[in-house]
Structures are given as structure tokens and as C-alpha cells.
Specification:
FAD/NAD(P)-binding domain, 10 helices, binds flavin-adenine dinucleotide
């Protein structure tokens, strides 16, 4: 293994793989990407991988929109296949959130997103299976869809390797090293690597690693859960990607006649999960409720059969938005973490802006100032007045849906 590097990237999720790729693409030689297990083994490999632009703030939107260019032209820009399917995307909201939806669509259009409000009649035409009774408004993105977490991250790592990055799997970083206030490298399960630059992109594992050089990250871990159901034959044509804010869930088509759906945990689920504590179990109660939510929006799903469910831990920051910055205290330390359950669709642009920050001293593709680390001390978290209400937890008993 190389004992020196120009830059070490810690974490072979979609974020670290993207950063390593763009560092090399911008011409940096001798980059090393370290992954303690295998590429995409963290949150990335379990991701729902929705690629939609609908955010409630312009900064995440800009990152998602830049990334859409990459997902849509993956073969030319990265190579290989990220599993992107341009299915179209629909967001529906409750009646009380319809003004917020209008404001958000206006904001999204201002950033350049191809989206519009659609009438409920148009929604029925686009997606005839939809129950619109409890829907207050809908918006449509024809260019959005979904990809595949594993495929995207491994394609990025593969291309990074072709560009000269040393991709080391099965190598765990135990500590970042500094001398005074300057980064000097990392200590790993395979020895030390000396490097003046370390990019920390270790997802839910980032906080204890940052602490090894005295940097306190306001980032914890939260378990996210998803499942796959088989659409019944009577469902007909596959559906688009949906985020259903009226009930608080999402679903998208998966391979064959499977539908992937989010399984929202109970509000009491912990925000401080240790990502090394593997817990693949998914409460039956959550599965039942999620299927009930799906069947509410798509009644023809009532007889859908459960096929599997899974979970993984993602990094969550104190305001629920990513942190993209260099440490103000330790020269040479860069941080890309706190993806807060939405870091797949923005990963290509995050790779670009982090490479710009490292090599040019400033991100130019997208303004990342709002994602700075100091926003928490400055009491300037990222908040939007057009955030949708999270509907209350509905008990499965009220739903009447059974697991098949
Ligand atoms: C069920 C689920 C559904 C989701 N749905 C969506 C969605 O629809 N759209 C969307 O945009 N996002 C979604 N997300 C979120 C998204 O997948 C994550 O935000 C994103 O994948 C995080 O990428 P990452 O690279 O930061 O972290 P990870 O993928 O967790 O990667 C971190 C990597 O660092 C490695 N690592 C950790 N510690 C060390 C160490 N000490 N040394 C070396 N390597 C180390 C880990 O092994 C891991 O591979 C979802 C997530 C889940 C779990």
C-alpha cells in the first residue's frame, strides 16, 4: 500500500467515491480512497436512490439539478451504468400544504428545474391508479426518476481507479493524524499514510473520526428503512416515482414488477444510532403501516405482497442538511457528511464542489456557503418556511391492510 498520498478520502460510499473521482478528474495525482469494507456497503448500497429535484430550499436543489446532468449522461461522463431510469416524478401534498407546494415549485423553477404544478385531473391522466381524495396539490418533474446506489458508487470508484486513484477496500481508518494544526495523514488497519489533505466522507462513522483530530461534528446516525412489494397483476402499467407528503412516504418502481417503498419509523426512533450495530430487523408494525400508506395512494396495491425489507444508518446533521466544508481549525481537513437521508441524488455535484474546494480553495459549480460547518455555532441552520408538515403516525389497526 502507498505510504504517501496527495489526498486521502475516507469512505467509499457514493459521496467519497464521487469526491475521489472528481479530485482525479481535475488532475490531482496520488489520491487514495479508503473503505473499511467494500464500496457502497454503508447507506449508499441500501438507498432508495430517488433522483428528484423537489426540495424546499434552493441550495440542495442546485446540487440535485447539477447532479441530474450527470445521472442523465452517466455513460459519457462517468462510464458504466448507475441504473438511472427517467420515470418521471410526482410529489403530492395535503390540502393544508398546497400553498407551500406552490411556493416551492416557484423556487425550483427559479433554480432552473423542469417542474410544474399539475391539476388533480392531470395527475389522474399521468397516473390513473392514483387516489386523489386527500391530495391538496401535486407537482411533476418529467426529467427525474431513480438510479441504483450500489451501481452508481461502484461506477464512480471504478472510473476513479481508471483516473489513477488507489481504491483500497477492507482498509479501516482508525485515526486522522495532525501535527499542530495541520493534517499529516491517517492511521489505518494497514499502516500509516502520510498526506497533507484528508477528506472525511465516512457517513454515519464521520463524527468519531473527526474527534481524533479534535473536531466536533454536529452529526449523528439515524436508521432508515425501506422495503419491496410485488405489484399485483391488476395494478397494470408501472408507476412513476412518488413522494407522498400527504401521508409522509415515498415509493418508486424497482426491477421487474417490484415497487420499492420507504418505511417511515415511528417518531421516537433514535437519532444517535451506532452504525456498527447492524440491525436488519424491521418492525412488522412499520411495514403494515407503510403498505397501508401505499394502498391509500394506489388502491390497486392493496393486494401487493411483501418481498423484503432492509435498513441502514445514514449521517444526520443537527439541521438535517449536509455539511460541506474545510475545517477552520485543522488545515487540510475537509468534511462531506451529514447527508441526512437525502445524499444520493446530490452526490455527483458534491464530488465536484468538494474537489473544487480542495484544489481551487472555493467551490464554483454550486454555492456551498449555506452548508458550512460554522452555521451551527452562528445559529444559522438551514431552514425553510415551506417545509411540509409531517403527518401523524397512523396505527396499522386503522388501516386494515395485512402483510401478504
Ligand atoms: C433506506 C434508505 C433510503 C434512502 N433513499 C434515498 C433517496 O431516495 N434519495 C437520496 O438522495 N438519498 C437516499 N438515502 C440517503 C442516501 O443513500 C445517503 O445519504 C448516501 O448514500 C450517503 O452516502 P455517504 O457516502 O455519505 O455514506 P455511506 O454510504 O454510509 O458511506 C460511508 C462509507 O464510509 C465507510 N467508512 C466508515 N468508517 C470508515 C473508516 N473508519 N475507514 C474507512 N471507511 C470507513 C463505510 O464503510 C461506508 O461505506 C437513503 C438511505 C437509506 C438508508
Amino acid at each position: 500500500m502507498a505510504t504517501t498520498a496527495s489526498a486521502v478520502v475516507i469512505g467509499g460510499g457514493v459521496v467519497g467515491s464521487s469526491i475521489a473521482h472528481y479530485l482525479a478528474q481535475k488532475g490531482l495525482k496520488d489520491v487514495v480512497l479508503l473503505e473499511k469494507s467494500s464500496i457502497a456497503d454503508g447507506a449508499t448500497g441500501s438507498s432508495g436512490a430517488l433522483v428528484r429535484m423537489h426540495y424546499t430550499d434552493p441550495w440542495n436543489t442546485a446540487l440535485a439539478l447539477k447532479s441530474l446532468e450527470v445521472f442523465s449522461n452517466w455513460g459519457d461522463l462517468i462510464g458504466g451504468d448507475c441504473g438511472f431510469h427517467k420515470t418521471g416524478f410526482v410529489v403530492v401534498v395535503s390540502k393544508q400544504d398546497s400553498d407551500k407546494l406552490r411556493n416551492n415549485v416557484e423556487m425550483l423553477q427559479g433554480v432552473g428545474v423542469n417542474t410544474d404544478l399539475i391539476s388533480l385531473d392531470d395527475l389522474k391522466t399521468l397516473q390513473p391508479q392514483t387516489n386523489i381524495e386527500d391530495v391538496g396539490g401535486a407537482a411533476y418533474e418529467p426529467d427525474s426518476g431513480h438510479a441504483d446506489g450500489y451501481s452508481a458508487a461502484t461506477a464512480l470508484a471504478h472510473r476513479a481507479r481508471e483516473l489513477g486513484v488507489q481504491v483500497r477496500q477492507g482498509v479501516r481508518v482508525s485515526a486522522i493524524r495532525k501535527d499542530g494544526d495541520k493534517i499529516i495523514g491517517v492511521t489505518t488497519s494497514d499502516g500509516d499514510i502520510d498526506a497533507p489533505i484528508v477528506v472525511l466522507a465516512a457517513g454515519a462513522w464521520s463524527t468519531p473520526l473527526a474527534a481524533t483530530v479534535g473536531v466536533d461534528l454536529p452529526v449523528g446516525g439515524q436508521r432508515l428503512t425501506a422495503g419491496a412489494v410485488e405489484r399485483p397483476p391488476e395494478f397494470g402499467e408501472p408507476h412513476m416515482v412518488f413522494i407522498d407528503h400527504a401521508v409522509g412516504n415515498y415509493f418508486r418502481p424497482d426491477v421487474g414488477n417490484l415497487t420499492l417503498l420507504g418505511i417511515r419509523p415511528h417518531a421516537s426512533a433514535s437519532l444517535h444510532v451506532n452504525p456498527d450495530e447492524r440491525d436488519e430487523g424491521v418492525a412488522l408494525e412499520w411495514q403494515v403501516r407503510s403498505l397501508a400508506q401505499l394502498a391509500n395512494r394506489m388502491p390497486a396495491m392493496e393486494n401487493a405482497g411483501w418481498r423484503r425489507s432492509w435498513s441502514a444508518v445514514d449521517s444526520y446533521s443537527a439541521d438535517g442538511h449536509m455539511i460541506l466544508d474545510q475545517s477552520p481549525d485543522v488545515q487540510g481537513l475537509y468534511v462531506a457528511t451529514g447527508m441526512s437521508g437525502t445524499g444520493f441524488k446530490t452526490a455527483p455535484a458534491v464530488g465536484m464542489v468538494m474537489a473544487e474546494l480542495v484544489l481551487d480553495g472555493k467551490a464554483s459549480t454550486v454555492d456551498i456557503q449555506p452548508f458550512r460547518l460554522s452555521r451551527f455555532q452562528e445559529n444559522q441552520p438551514i431552514v425553510s418556511e415551506n417545509e411540509y408538515e409531517i403527518p401523524p403516525f397512523e396505527t396499522p389497526a386503522a388501516s386494515g391492510v395485512e402483510i401478504h
